[in-house]
Write a structure and sequence with these properties.
This protein has about 350 residues and is of the alpha/beta class. It folds into 3 domains: about 50-120; about 125-190, Ubiquitin-like (UB roll) (Roll); about 195-335, Rossmann fold (3-Layer(aba) Sandwich). It has helices spanning about 1-30, 45-50, 55-120, 135-145, 155-165, 245-260, 300-315; strands at about 125-130, 170-180, 185-190, 195-200, 205, 215-220, 225-230, 270-275, 280-285, 290-295, 320-325, 330-335. Strands 6-5-4-7-8-9-10-11-12 form a 9-stranded mixed β-sheet, covered by helices on one side. A 3-stranded mixed β-sheet has the order 1-3-2, with helices on one face. Mean pLDDT is about 85; it is low at about 1-10 and about 45-50.
C-alpha cells in the first residue's frame, strides 16, 4: 500500500520534470524568450484553501455575518417590542371595558334603589311624639305637616320644626328625626315659665322666655305667670317675637328672663321691668324688689339679692322692701317708707 502511494505521488513530479526539460530544449534551439513553464495545479482546492486563510477575507466575512446577525436581532427585537406594545393596548382596552361594565352595573343598581326608595320602600307608617303636655299628639303631628304613607326621605324635617314653633307657640324647641325603615320621631319642649303684660283693654298678652307671643287677648291673668311691666307691644301676633320700641330695654328684659330660666326662679319672681339700661328691676314674690342697676354681672347681683332675702326671711317671712345690688359689691335692704 505504501509503495502504491509513493508511486502515485511520484508521477506528477516526473511529469513536471519532463515538461521543464522540453522548455529547456526549445529555449536552446530557438533562443530564450524569458518564458517559464506554466504552473500546473492539481485542482482548484488548494487555491480556495489559500483564499480561506486570507485574514482580510475572513474579517470581511465575519463583519458581514455580524451585520446580518445584528440586523436579525434588531428586527426580532422590533417585532417583540411591537408585540408587547400591542398586548399592553389589548390589556388596557380589556381593563377599561371591565371598569365601564362594572360602573354601569353599579349605576343601574343605584338608580333602581333610589327609585324604589322614593316610590315603594321606606313609607312612613309611624309618627311618634314626646315631651308634650300643653298640646295633644294629634295637634303636633298636624302642625308638623308630615303625613303617613309618604316617603321617609322626602319628609321635610326642617320645615316640620319651623311649623311646630310657629303654629304651636308654647313649643320653644322641636326636633324631628327619621328612623329607618318607616318612623318619624318628634320631640318637643314646651314653655315652663309664662310672661305676660296687661293691655289697655284689660286683656293680657302672653310670652315665653324669648318674648315670643304665646297668646293674645287673653281674658284672665295667667296663674303663676311673671308680669312684664311697662311693656306695651303693638300688633302682637301669636308665634312671632314682639318688636320693642326701645331695643336696649328689650335686651335688658331678655337678660333678666335668661337668668330666671337659668337659676330656675320661675316660682319666685313675680315681676320684671326696665326703666332704662341702668335701672332694671325684679320683684321677689310680690313683696321685695331687687334693684339691679345695669344688667352687667347680672347673675352675681341676683345671687347676692337672694342671699339678703334669705336672711330677711329668717327674721320676718312677710317682710317687704327693696334689696339694692348695683355696681359696687355692697348689697343692702331698705324697708318701705311708712
Amino acid at each position: 500500500m505504501k509503495q502504491n502511494r509513493n508511486k502515485k505521488s511520484n508521477k506528477p513530479d516526473s511529469h513536471r520534470q519532463s515538461r521543464q526539460n522540453e522548455f529547456s530544449d526549445l529555449n536552446s534551439q530557438l533562443g530564450s524568450f524569458g518564458l517559464e513553464p506554466p504552473k500546473i495545479y492539481r485542482n482548484e482546492q488548494p487555491q480556495k484553501r489559500g483564499n480561506e486563510q486570507n485574514p482580510d477575507i475572513q474579517r470581511r466575512r465575519s463583519n458581514k455575518k455580524q451585520k446580518i446577525s445584528s440586523a436579525k436581532k434588531s428586527n426580532d427585537s422590533n417585532i417583540n417590542e411591537k408585540r408587547r406594545s400591542q398586548n399592553k393596548k389589548r390589556k388596557k382596552k380589556k381593563t377599561l371595558r371591565k371598569i365601564i361594565t362594572v360602573a354601569s352595573v353599579v349605576l343601574a343598581v343605584v338608580v333602581v334603589m333610589v327609585i324604589l326608595s322614593l316610590t315603594v320602600l321606606f313609607k312612613i307608617d309611624t309618627i311618634s311624639v314626646s315631651g308634650n303636655s300643653k298640646y295633644k299628639t294629634e295637634q303636633i303631628i298636624s302642625a308638623s305637616e308630615i303625613e303617613k304613607n309618604t316617603n321617609l326621605f322626602t319628609a321635610d324635617a326642617s320645615n316640620a320644626q319651623v311649623q311646630l314653633l310657629k303654629k304651636l307657640p308654647y313649643i320653644y324647641q322641636a326636633e324631628v328625626k327619621r328612623k329607618f325603615p318607616s318612623t318619624v320621631q318628634i320631640t318637643v319642649k314646651e314653655t315652663d315659665t309664662v310672661y305676660y303684660t296687661k293691655n289697655k283693654d284689660n286683656t293680657f298678652t302672653l310670652f315665653d322666655g324669648t318674648l315670643k307671643v304665646l297668646e293674645t287677648n287673653v281674658a284672665a291673668e295667667p296663674k303663676d305667670g311673671i308680669e312684664i311691666k311697662k311693656l306695651a307691644p303693638s300688633n302682637a301676633v301669636a308665634g312671632e317675637v314682639i318688636k320693642a320700641d326701645d331695643d336696649k330695654s328689650y335686651d335688658d328684659l331678655l337678660a333678666m328672663m335668661q337668668i330666671i330660666e337659668k337659676l330656675k326662679l320661675g316660682n319666685d319672681i313675680t315681676e320684671i321691668y326696665s326703666n332704662d339700661i341702668n335701672n332694671n328691676f325684679m320683684v321677689y314674690k310680690g313683696r321685695i324688689t331687687f334693684k339691679l342697676g345695669s344688667t352687667a354681672d347680672l347673675e352675681d347681683k341676683v345671687y347676692k339679692a337672694l342671699s339678703v332675702v334669705e336672711k330677711i326671711n329668717d327674721s320676718d317671712p312677710n317682710a317687704k322692701g327693696t334689696v339694692t345690688v348695683t355696681a359696687d359689691k355692697k348689697s343692702y335692704f331698705t324697708p318701705p317708707e311708712v
